[in-house]
Amino acid sequence: MNGIGIKYFIITIASIFIALGVGIIIGFSLNSEKFVQKQFQQQLNVIDKNLINLKKENDRLLKEIDEYKNQVAQQGKINNSLVNAYLKLGKIDSAVTIVITSTDYSYNDLIDFLRKIGIKINRIIKIKSSFLNIVNENSNEFGSYKLPDDAIKDITVYSVFDIKSELIKMLIEKRYIEVNKLSSGISDTVVLAGGNTLQNNNFNKIDRKMVEFFVDINNLNVIGVQQSYSEVNYCEYYKNMGLNTVDNVDETSGRISLIELIRGNNGNYGTKKEATSIIPSNFVGIEDAKKALENRRTSLLVEFEKYQNASLAVP
Question: What are the residues whose beta carbons fall under 8 Å from the beta carbon of 174, sequence distance 6 or more?
Answer without folding.
Answer: 141
